[in-house]
Write a structure and sequence with these properties.
The complex is a heterodimer of chains A (288) and B (136). Chain A has 288 residues and is an alpha/beta fold. Helix content of chain A is 32%, strand content 30%. Chain A contains eight helices and 14 strands. Chain B has a two-stranded antiparallel sheet. In chain B, helix 1 packs across helix 3 and helix 2 packs across helix 3. Classes of the chains: A alpha/beta (288), B mainly alpha (136). The interface between A and B is medium-sized, with 18 and 17 residues.
């Protein structure tokens, strides 16, 4: 069953649309990278999927059940501001978690916390570093034994060692329980090595949605003379040009014409190409 | 049963996908005789513990190796190597071709060549002897 489906979902705050006409369906058991620039609508999408924010238009379903303004029991959500009771110790927090959740595994929380070096269980949450707060919040999220784990910028406050620890915990969760994970980041390097599905949003709209390898295989980067782009076939995503040379990112491209060299893009150049294209669309819309 | 026969080294900055790195490293280990028929590949969970990569990627690499007929998944037991790719020419430290290459590498070093020089020479000579369609 599909862990998360969006059908024409939109969210308007006053006059601004944070998310617009988003439709997608995520595959089960995958690690999904939710990518986009700051302000692209990633957090709003995740908050809607967690049932914290109601969409203005459209509908979201989790494991086939339409969301009605509350979190689905099979979902855990790590919010960007990591809301935890700051005056409680880590140990007390785990007890509160047990009282607040119908399905809860204190053993699982302790097991995850034990894997994270440097989290003092008797320290008040407010005294912990931002990185430790994130790690505790992830342990609490896993305590709900989710089938769908939504993580908003999970690696943002972590030093390299804690990032590796945290990724290992999340990946072990995928290996052991087949949990579907959606992770947002505006830093592509964080997710490049661990995602197998991508959802790229910009201006609140889905720009790319698919298995990473398949998406890459559908695109080509062609490099050739700037004077002769007419022979290139395919859907142009974006282009950079010097006086002599054009570098084109194309979807469903034909074979490289005479004088052109073609290669499959890597994830970075693909994402950059789409983000550049939407920035240019935005700039030309403003010029009107 | 032997476990931990090989360990994957994932280079996050190589530009080669994790999936391809795993496929290459298994093939390479088989050619060198480090992995042979009957050996169990590390489980996805073991690879996650060692490298923090996505377990789906490990399983995908194993499926590719299975498609190539090099390994076989046995339900509940793991993934096992089903054949040997090592030949007398490639396996073991005293294989004749390996010794010959070792001597060549020794003279290159004595001649003051750095790693880049050696790699460039090696690939140039290789490309003379093996046409492009035989390389992968």
């Amino acid at each position: 069953m599909t862990p998360l489906t969006a059908t024409a979902v939109g969210k308007r705050y006053r006059t601004r649309w944070a998310v617009r006409d988003c439709s997608f369906s995520l595959p089960e058991g995958k690690v999904v990278a939710l990518l986009g620039a700051n302000g692209a609508g990633k957090s709003t999408l995740l908050r809607m999927a967690a049932g914290l924010v109601r969409p203005t238009t459209g509908e979201l379903s989790v494991f086939g059940t339409p969301l009605r303004g509350r979190i689905h029991p099979d979902v855990s959500f790590l919010a960007q501001n990591r809301p935890l009771y700051r005056d409680l110790t880590v140990r007390e927090l785990v007890r509160v978690g047990a009282a607040m959740n119908d399905r809860w595994s204190a053993d699982r929380v302790r097991e995850v916390l034990a894997l994270q070096a440097g989290v003092d269980h008797d320290a008040k949450v407010r005294t912990l570093s931002a990185g430790s707060v994130t790690q505790v919040a992830i342990a609490m999220a896993l305590g709900r034994l989710p089938r769908l784990l939504l993580l908003d910028e999970p690696l943002a406050d972590l030093d390299p060692l804690a990032r590796e620890e945290t990724l290992r915990i999340i990946m072990a969760e995928v290996a052991d329980r087949g949990t579907t994970v959606v992770m947002s980041s505006h830093v592509l390097a964080d997710l490049r090595e661990v995602c197998d599905h991508m959802l790229l949003v910009d201006e609140g709209r889905v720009q790319v949605d698919g298995d990473v390898e398949e998406v890459l295989a559908r695109h080509r980067v062609l490099v050739g003379p700037v004077t002769d782009e007419s022979t290139v076939e395919g859907e142009l995503v974006s282009a950079t040009r010097t006086q002599r040379q054009s570098t084109l990112l194309l979807k469903d491209a034909g074979p490289a014409p005479e004088g052109w060299a073609g290669a499959e893009p890597d994830l970075d150049s693909l994402v950059m190409g789409y983000l550049r294209a939407s920035r240019e669309r935005r700039a030309s819309a403003q010029r009107g | 049963m032997l476990t931990g026969v090989i360990e994957f080294r994932i280079d996050r900055h190589s530009g080669v996908s994790t999936y391809m790195q795993i496929v290459h490293q298994v093939r390479q280990a088989m050619r060198l005789g480090l992995l042979t028929s009957g050996d169990r590949l590390p489980s996805a969970r073991e690879v996650v513990d060692a490298t923090a990569v996505n377990p789906n990627t490990v399983l995908k690499a194993y499926r590719e190796l299975e498609r190539e007929g090099l390994v076989e998944g046995r339900r509940g037991l793991g993934t096992f190597v089903t054949k040997s790719l090592a030949t007398e020419a490639t396996a073991g430290d005293d294989a004749p071709l390996r010794r010959e290459l070792g001597r060549w590498m020794g003279s290159a070093r004595e001649g003051g060549l750095v790693v880049e020089d050696v790699d460039a020479l090696y690939s140039a000579v290789r490309d003379e002897h093996y046409p492009a369609e035989e390389r992968s």
